[in-house]
Write a structure and sequence with these properties.
The complex is a heterodimer.
Chain A: E1 4-7, E2 10-14, E3 19-25, E4 31-37, E5 44-49, E6 55-58, E7 61-65, E8 71-76, E9 85-92, E10 101-102, E11 106-111
Chain B: E1 5-7, E2 10-13, E3 19-24, E4 31-37, E5 43-50, E6 53-57, E7 65-68, E8 75-79, E9 88-95, E10 105-106, E11 110-114
Parallel strand pairs in B: 2-11
Antiparallel strand pairs in B: 1-3, 3-8, 4-5, 4-9, 5-6, 7-8, 9-10, 9-11
The chains are: A mainly beta, B mainly beta.
Chain lengths: 112, 115
């Protein structure tokens, strides 16, 4: 089946630092999404990307849909304590009502 | 803001028992999903449901699983005879219409522990 690999698996950063993580796929997706999951809760959508090459921002978050349609990255600028959590990329073959294939996750920890 | 709700938040059951996990999707949504997440792993798709029938299901969704929309508001996942490996967090999600840019909204999950 389709695989989405995220890197890094985990990150330990200090508050205020910028964060960058990426997601690569073995096959093409035409929609890429980034979700954040807090402990014991469901994934919450951060950013959705619908066009190859698209760069989209949501506050301190910026994500890009790779030109090859097989990758995406997420940047977080000036990290704050509430950014702690697990970040998942997810892909859909085409559009919003198809199943989501989730990545392996990047766990972000902020060192005080 | 409307949200997906799930009950119970936690369920402990004995192997071989039947469990029913309940979800109330967002009221005007028409597409419903179940996903699961084994502890420490990624979220995996189980099944999608539209117009009172299954749209798509994964290899995980075998004959032990079933879904139902018993009334106008609830969406349920039944596991007929639970196995140890069914222990996981189960998430319900819903989305509105068949649009290009439609988002799936997730509930808080039910943590199922099979002993």
């Amino acid at each position: 089946g389709q695989q989405l690999n995220q890197s890094p698996q985990s990150m330990f950063i200090q508050e205020g630092e910028d964060v960058s993580m990426n997601c690569t796929s073995s096959s093409i997706f035409n929609t890429w999404l980034w979700y954040k999951q807090d402990p014991g809760e469901g994934p919450v959508l951060l950013i959705a990307l619908y066009k190859a090459g698209e760069l989209t921002s949501n506050g301190r978050l910026t994500a890009q849909f790779g030109i090859t349609r097989k990758d995406s990255f997420l940047n977080i600028s000036a990290s704050i304590p509430s950014d702690v959590g697990i970040y998942f990329c997810a892909g859909q073959p085409n559009f919003g009502n198809e199943k989501l294939t989730f990545g392996t996750g990047t766990r972000l920890t902020i060192i005080p | 803001e409307p949200e997906v709700t799930q009950t119970p938040s936690h369920q402990v059951t004995q192997m071989g028992q039947e469990v029913i996990l309940r979800c109330v999707p967002i009221s005007n949504h028409l597409y419903f999903y179940w996903y699961r997440q084994i502890l420490g792993q990624k979220v995996e798709f189980l099944v999608s449901f539209y117009n009172n029938e299954i749209s798509e299901k994964s290899e995980i969704f075998d004959d032990q699983f079933s879904v139902e929309r018993p009334d106008g508001s609830n969406f349920t996942l039944k596991i007929r005879s639970t196995k140890l490996e069914d222990s996981a967090m189960y998430f319900c999600a819903s989305s509105e219409l068949e649009k290009i840019q439609e988002t799936q909204y997730f509930g808080p999950g039910t943590r199922l522990l099979v002993l």
